[in-house]
Amino acid sequence: MAILQQFGPTRSHPFMPTASAPGELSAAARKYGVKPMPSLEWNAQVERETAHLYDRVQAVIPPVEWPFFAPYVKAINTLKKERGAVILAHNYQTPEIYNCVADFVGDSLQLAVEVTKTKAPIIVQAGVHFMAETSKILNPDKTVLIPDVRAGCSLASSIIGEDVRLLRDKFPGVPIVAYVNTSADVKAEVDICCTSANAVQVVESLGADTVIFLPDQYLANYVASQTKVRIISWKGACEVHERFTADELEKYRADDPSVQIIAHPECPPDVLEAADYTGSTKGMIDWVRKNKPKRVVMVTECSMADNVKAELPDVEFVKPCNLCPHMKRITLPKILDSLVYMKEEVVIDPMIAEKARRSVERMIHLKM
Ligand code: 13P
Ligand code: SF4
To answer: Is the CB of 110 under 6 A from ligand 1?
Structure first.
């Protein structure tokens, strides 16, 4: 089934997350206190204590770079325990974060589910702002920190709650599904959320012949290609995935006809058509684990290939290196600052959080 209609952003929505004013202590810093900055010296003891972690990343981090990362890794892991905090890292985080300091790693769905199981009072989100908001929505009584509050997302900033209300007025009775890559304000206005791992099942679970699916036009196209449900979409796009072209993939195939190409559904339709497999970030990782291809192109954010390479050094990754500038704002020094100064705290209006929680929990509790 093709897309029935498409609406689009009529203006850009500057990304303006809530944060403490510069120099002002966050409520979390007042509650938990500020810790002294640990030593960041590279010495034989740090080398010894982090050697087991270097083993995990040696396929992707050269030995000459480890003395820069290791003191941060040690300091973060020590402070994390002292604070009783957990670090959640999305699959797009760099290898030293993903492999050496994270307690939970995964795609948006895995992180959303894991976060509901943690008892830790403090969550540090190594990912982008909508992910940290999802953690706060599901854990209203916990402190959620994001190491750089400017880590946005082109999809999340393509739509606001008011746009959803206008769509609802225009299509009364038509259910609305929001990709988790949206602000809490948007999640509060929709019927249910989805991730790229469960989008088709979520749309079909509603039992409607037409569904509004927002904000990613390409994920909406992908869903429409997999279901009989008629889709009304929004013209948002991921600035990382929309840059891939079918032409570049054909060049990889021309160079090596045996190469395997796997793509994220945020890519344009001709890119997905040129791919051997389409799936969420977790779906793509599982595909490589299961098929162990000799050479593979992961058509998604570049760091993910490094993280899989760290685990499967025998697989050769051909890397069109599109980095997400928002994900890359999160670094070890900023994670350490988060834990020392308890910043930046994610704050959501409780009325909005309550409504948004219904949409996220409806997705999590769906029997699929
Ligand atoms: P996943 O839900 O597949 O992890 O994707 C999130 C994302 O931001 C992709 O760009
Ligand atoms: Fe958003 Fe795209 Fe970055 Fe994912 S990769 S966080 S969708 S801009």
So the answer is: no
Residue spans per domain, the chain: 1-237+324-368, 241-322
CA of 267 to the centre of ligand 1 (A): 11
Rounded to two decimals, the pTM is: 0.94
The secondary structure element, H or E, covering residue 192 is strand 192-194
Other Cβ atoms closer than 10 A to 12: 9
**Residue 151 burial by CB count (10 A; 0-12/13-18/19+): exposed, middle or buried?**
buried
Domain 1-237+324-368 and domain 241-322, same fold? Reply is yes
pLDDT in tens, 89-141: 999 999 999 999 999 999 988 898 888 898 999 999 999 999 999 999 999 99
Distance CA 299, CA 316 (A): 14
Residue to mutate (ligand 1; options 107, 180, 200, 267; most atoms within 8 A of CB): 107
**Which ligand has its closest atom nearest to the C-alpha of 152?**
2
Instruction: Please give the distance, rounded to the nearest whole angstrom, from the Cα atom of residue 132 to the centre of ligand 1.
Output: 14
Residue ID of nearest Cα to ligand 2 atom 3: 324
pLDDT of residue 298: 96
| Architecture label for domain 241-322 | 3-Layer(aba) Sandwich (3.40)
Ligand 1 atom with the shortest distance to the CA of 283: 3
Q: Is 117 exposed, middle or buried (0-12, 13-18, 19+ CB in 10 A)?
A: exposed
Which CATH code fits 1-237+324-368? 3.40.50.10800
Mean pLDDT throughout 144-164? Answer: 96
Q: Kindly report, residue by residue over 312-331, the tens digit of the pLDDT.
A: 999 999 988 899 999 999 99
- For residue range 243-287, what is the model confidence (pLDDT) as tens digits? 999 999 999 999 999 999 999 999 999 999 999 999 999 999 999
The β-bridge partners of 234 are 7
